[in-house]
Every structure is written in C-alpha cells, then in structure tokens.
C-alpha cells in the first residue's frame, strides 16, 4: 500500500493531538471491526473554532485523516467545518488508498458528531445544521 508524503507526514507528526478540558463539543465515532476510533474536541468562540484536538486509536491513515481534518477546520467558522467532506480531507492528503477511504469518512463524522454535541449543549437541535448522524459505521477495507 502506497501512502502520499502528506499522509506519512501527518502520521509521523500529527497536529492537534490531545484533548480539550471543558470542550464546547466532543464527538466520538468508530468502527469496532477495524479498531479505528476517533474522538474530536472543539473549543468554539463566537461561532469560530478556536481550538480542536483529537485522539485516534487506529491505523496510520486514521491518525493522518484526523490530523488533517483538524488542520482544515481550526480557526474557521462552524459553517466551514460543517461543509468539510471526507473528499476534502483525502484531497488535502494527496489521496488515500481505496481500502483506507473509510478513515476519511470517520474524520468527517467525528467533526460532525462534535458539532452536534456543541449544538445540543447550546440547547439547539443539531439536525438542521449537522444533518442526521449515521449510526452506520463506514465499512473498512478488511
């Protein structure tokens, strides 16, 4: 399996690892079959994601997609984070092997789950903003 230099770089030196105490939104998603589990933490001020951290248990592609996804939304308005797609994460990493595309889906879902948690904590129904969160696990390449 060939990974791009960007995937290798984000795996070897992941950005924004850790957790945020008193986070404004926390989302956890995973695929038990693959063992990939992602947890995202968001700090939001005035509609801007001022900080984002993640903890990922999984393969190198799972770590790299989490890292890249956090980089793509940090400092951005919530609206931009809501528009982040797994495709954008894959493109930012210069591609992923087909059997690892599910990792980018998990990264997108983790961000949406954290945003849904944020809206819920604000007393706002998250579904109009985040959409219906799927209970379905993305299929992994095994």
The backbone outline, from C-alpha atoms, is globular
Overall number of strands: 3
Predict the CATH topology: Sufe protein. Chain: A
CATH A-level architecture: Alpha-Beta Complex
Order of helices and strands: HEEEHHHHH
* Cα end-to-end separation: 14 Å
Number of helices: 6
Category by helix and strand content: alpha+beta
Number of structural domains? 1
Largest sheet: 3 strands, antiparallel
Strand-residue fraction? 15-25%
- Rg (C-alpha, Å): 14 Å
Class, according to the CATH hierarchy?
Alpha Beta
Instruction: Detail the poorly predicted runs.
Output: none
Helix-residue proportion: 40-55%
How much is the average pLDDT?
Answer: 93
Q: What strand line-up does the widest sheet have? A: 1-2-3
Could you describe the 3D structure shown?
By secondary structure, the protein is of the alpha+beta class. It has one domain (5-122): Sufe protein. Chain: A, CATH 3.90.1010. It has helices at residues 5-12, 60-73, 78-83, 86-92, 101-121, 127-130, and strands spanning 25-31, 36-45, 48-57. A three-stranded antiparallel beta sheet has the order 1-2-3. α1 (5-12) packs across α2 and α2 crosses α5 (101-121). The longest helix has 21 residues, at 101-121. The model has no long low-confidence stretch (mean pLDDT 93).
Sum this structure up briefly:
The protein is an alpha+beta fold and 142 residues long. It is built from six helices and three strands, in the order αβββααααα. The protein is globular.
């Amino acid at each position: 399996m060939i990974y791009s230099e960007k995937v290798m770089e984000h795996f070897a030196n992941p950005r924004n690892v850790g957790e945020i105490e008193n986070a404004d939104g926390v989302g956890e998603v995973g695929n038990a079959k693959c063992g990939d589990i992602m947890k995202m933490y968001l700090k939001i001020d005035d509609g801007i994601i001022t900080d984002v951290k993640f903890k990922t248990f999984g393969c190198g592609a799972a770590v790299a997609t989490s890292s890249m996804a956090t980089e793509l939304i940090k400092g951005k308005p919530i609206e931009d984070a809501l528009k982040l797609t797994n495709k954008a994460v894959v493109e930012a990493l210069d591609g992923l092997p087909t059997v690892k595309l599910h990792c980018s889906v998990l990264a997108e879902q983790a961000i949406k789950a954290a945003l849904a948690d944020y809206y819920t904590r604000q007393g706002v129904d998250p579904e109009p903003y985040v959409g219906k969160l799927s209970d379905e696990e993305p299929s992994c390449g095994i």
